[in-house]
Amino acid sequence: MATNRPLTSELDGTYRQELWTRSADKAVVADRPLPTPTRDLIELQADLDAHGYCLVADAISPTDRTVLREKFERQWEAEARIGRGLPSPTGVHAVCNLLNKGEIYQKTVLQPVVDDLIEYLLGDGFLISNICGLQIVPGSKAQGLHMDQFLFGVPATFALVANAFFMIDEFTEENGATRVVPGSHRWSPEQVASVYEGLGVAGNGVGENPAGSIPATAPAGTCMVFEGRLVHGAGKSLSADRTRLAVSSYYCRPWLRPFVNAFLSTPDDIMESFSPALRAQLGYATWRLSGGYEAPGMPVSAEVVRPTDQVRDLTDTSS
Ligand SMILES: O=C(O)CCC(=O)C(=O)O
After folding, report:
1. Ligand 1: which atom is nearest the Cα of residue 92?
2. Is 170 contained in some domain?
3. What is the DSSP string of 152-194?
4. In this structure, which residue's CA is closest to atom 5 in ligand 1?
5. Is residue 21 part of a domain?
6. Is residue 11 part of a domain?
7. In total, how many domains does the chain have?
């Protein structure tokens, strides 16, 4: 199981060797079939190596899926009412920073098999970057194809970020299953550049499903883990009445800045309610020689300004 463990090897050079081994692209079996849902870790890792994504079977129970769907929809409506919803150029309903918004989200994303796969991609000490809900609704347009790590602006031949996409509904082409380009994580810089010509996260101007991509279809309850170099994008809704919800748990390497700053975004009482393992994934742990506080020679900040208007669970009517 993945741990945010301190290594004794950080200064003796074994760590550099370990990082290099993790970072180098693995040799892949030619013509490996596209991923199908499984819980076999070796198969899942081989799918990640060959295709840039894998499908973890039976990651969320039907009962939890019902609770998650209902809770997400109420939270989205409540945030929209107070003007805190994320703007979406493609019409998707999105809610950010879900760990603030109900305990069920911890249970959903903290799973040993997912941690193991994220550690396989990003190494130990990985951080939660953002946990959000993404619901494609009738009328949602396709997103432009993109790589998640493109935002860092640094071409890297290894994964900088990774995503665990919990499918709360069955993913079908009709309801807007995520579009993927299998194997694109091993593309050359020239191939990657060609994808970005005229495209972008906001869409390709017409909102149609992009050529060259396939829908990552799978039963409800599956978790699609994919790495930051995989070319992908949200699919277009072709349905008049069906929605598609995913809880996306997005991670980064421990030396990158997460999308959401947990120290500013999580009120103290909620942070204190988290397990030490979860707090470590939110940055309450050192990694190698980084991430501590009051390190020798480091002045303590003179002023700490911590917001108090974070959005919480707006579906909880018990208080
Ligand atoms: O919702 C999806 O299928 C993909 C979303 C995505 O890639 C994004 O928001 O960047």
Report:
1. 1
2. yes
3. G----SS-SEEEEEEESS-B-TTTTPPEE-TTGGG--HHHHHH
4. 234
5. no
6. no
7. 1
CATH of the domain at 268: 2.60.120.620
Q: Does ligand 1 have an atom closer than 6 angstroms to the CB of 147?
A: no
- In angstroms, the CA 102 to CA 151 distance is 29
Q: How far apart are CA 47 and CA 120, in angstroms?
A: 12
Query: In terms of pTM, does the model score above 0.85?
Result: yes
**Is residue 242 a contact partner of residue 175, using CB atoms and an 8 Å limit?**
yes
Nearest CA to ligand 1 atom 1: 234
> By residue range, what is the domain housing residue 129?
28-281
Question: Residues in the chain, how many?
Answer: 319
Q: Which of 275, 225, 231, 218 is nearest to 250 (CA)?
A: 225
Q: Is 178 in the pocket of ligand 1 (CB under 6 A)?
A: yes
The alpha-carbon radius of gyration of the chain (Å, integer) is: 20
Identity of residue 234: A
* Four-CA torsion 282, 98, 256, 291, nearest 10 degrees: -20
Per-residue pLDDT of the chain (319 residues; tens, 9 = 90+): 454 444 455 555 565 566 666 666 777 877 999 999 999 999 999 999 999 999 999 999 999 999 999 999 999 999 999 988 777 888 999 999 999 999 999 999 999 999 999 999 999 999 999 999 999 999 999 988 889 998 888 878 899 999 999 999 999 999 999 999 999 999 987 788 777 654 454 445 568 898 889 999 999 999 999 999 999 999 999 999 999 999 999 999 999 999 999 999 999 999 999 999 999 999 998 888 888 877 666 666 666 677 888 899 999 876 5
Both tokens assigned to 279: 């707090």
In a domain, 58, yes or no: yes
